[in-house]
Amino acid sequence: MRTSEASAPPSHRPDAPRMAQGRSFGLFLVLTGVVSWLASGMLVLERLALYKDPDYITSCDFNPWVSCGTVMKSTQAALFGFPNPFLGIVGFAVVITIGMALLAGARFARWYWIGVQVGVSLAMVFIVWLWSQALYEINALCLYCMVVWAMVIPMFLYTTARNIAHGVIPASGPVRRFSAEWTWVLAVILLVGTAATIFLRFPGAFLGA
């Protein structure tokens, strides 16, 4: 008989990656959430400095290709009418709270995990869009933004793996096994692939012009 999300043991599940199990997953969410929240916070501070002084040079303006200031002044940096980092300040604070609750032994209902899945999925879609805009429209990189990208990718993958293992996302046996065994590989591929596209698009930022 298949157990429900509410009654399933919160610690060990053989069909979930180790990092997506119990308190390990809580710690993972706290660490990725804190790093993302700090990067978002730095972006907010830099954006406020630019509001005060349009000629302000941000702390991550290194060259024509890696320039937070260039990215922040683009229309894409305020997709909803306010600076995008404000979304990160709120969203990653929620992620940290969930992680801390899991570390304390909290268990959430299936509907709650569906909400978490929707949230991290939207975050993943958003960073893919921001990646495409940075590389092919704005033609500049934001260091703090890239830190957030590097955190959201594994956050999305391991949350998805966790929810597959716990039945939040219905999946067949082969899909569950694939998720348990290959999530870390997918994370590495996406992170390395993202880094490769950045290097190939902006070789001058790394090799010099």
Automatic annotation (TrEMBL):
SMART domains: VKc. It is a multi-pass membrane protein. InterPro entries: VKOR, VKOR_Actinobacteria, VKOR_sf. Keywords: Disulfide bond, Membrane, Oxidoreductase, Quinone, Redox-active center, Transmembrane, Transmembrane helix. Coiled coil: none annotated. The keyword Acyltransferase does not apply. Pfam families: VKOR (PF07884). The chain crosses the membrane at residues 25-45, 86-104, 111-132, 138-161, 182-202. Residues 22-163 form the Vitamin K epoxide reductase domain. The keyword Nucleotide-binding does not apply. It is found in: Membrane. Belongs to the VKOR family. This is Vitamin K epoxide reductase family protein. It comes from Paeniglutamicibacter antarcticus. The lineage of its organism: Bacteria, Bacillati, Actinomycetota, Actinomycetes, Micrococcales.
